[in-house]
Amino acid sequence: MVDEEPMPTRWSFQEFKTYYDVRLGRKKLEENGETADKVVSNGNSSGVASNGNFHVRVTPDNAIYEQFQSQGRNPVHTNGFAPSIVNEKPPKSLLPPLESAEMRTLAESLSRDIIRGNPNVKWESIKGLENAKRLLKEAVVMPIKYPKYFTGLLSPWKGILLFGPPGTGKTMLAKAVATECNTTFFNISASSVVSKWRGDSEKLVKVLFELARHHAPATIFLDEIDAIISQRGEARSEHEASRRLKTELLIQMDGLTRTDELVFVLAATNLPWELDAAMLRRLEKRILVPLPEPEARRSMFEELLPRQPDEELIPYDLLVDRTEGYSGSDIRLLCKETAMQPLRRLMSQLEQEQDVVPEEELPKVGPVRPEDVEAALRNTRPSAHLLAHKYDKFNADYGSQILQ
Question: For strand 114-115 and strand 184-188, is the pairing parallel, antiparallel, or unpaired?
């Protein structure tokens, strides 16, 4: 059997040149030209099928074009973009170069913990905590804004610990830092770095810090860090995987202090006395986030329970005096309970109705009365005041202070 001769291509060199000129925007085709009918067609031509955007459909006639493109002989690679933006800097890839496909899979799972965009938490939205704000600005915000001054011995602190009673605003402060500095924010919890598969936990920690360096300046926020790295060696029941995870985290944090990349680790905990001593050493700044002061409590009440012009004056002084030892979340619950009292009176009236009242005919909720505040104070209790002395003692032993 005689081999059939290969059919010659239907495109000449001039047709190839015309096609690429049109594709790269260097030349427009004549509407009535013979080459235009062959190269770009809106009908059912046997040449090259196009949808108007010069997107070539693979057909037997243009197989040589596909081979020509795959061999890399195209002098200009546009990837479908207009020639005007070919020389622009490409966007940064989401993942850094990784050593294996397994590490890439772990990096993709950690990428879901990156907060896209800005957390949009301003310093002004956090009432009080002036000392904690000043320490955070000194440790994180100023080194990012003015890196010239923070070199050598004054290199920025890479590890910051926020400790204090629950509900005092530690997470809000971390998000405010990311907002102010416009850094990539990694919101990491124990579920992000703990895996049931052997060896994956320490690999997740390693990939996390590689991702942070790739997206620098970056902020890694480790919420409830006591669940990840409590004191080692005290409990004989501590699993080997837990020890390996803690060791890898300590090694990665130690490596941050030896690089110039702006990667900060913000850790928050309600139980700072349970942290390992080696981790406390790496968390160089230890900032107490205390219970709100009277001025901060008053600002919270005025914002959450604003006074209306035609309503009775809300007793803010009484609320401030009676909420000593309340955290920020306790105050929010107290304000919610106060606002529920008028709604409860309205609900008791609506329950007496036989039929459901249409939405447009529902009556307006009444104003907050002083007796509503008294009822809310009786029904709401502080949640963290019993351990306040332990936080003060830890702050005296390990905390960072501002020297005037």
Answer: antiparallel
